Amino acid sequence: QVQLMESGGGLVQAGGSLRLSCTASRSMFTFAYWGWYRQAPGKQRELVATITRGGTPNIVDSVKGRFTISRDNAKKTLYLQMNNLKPEDTSVYYCNFRDYGGNYWGQGTQVTVSS
Question: Rounded CA gap, 84 and 3, in Å?
Answer without folding.
Answer: 30
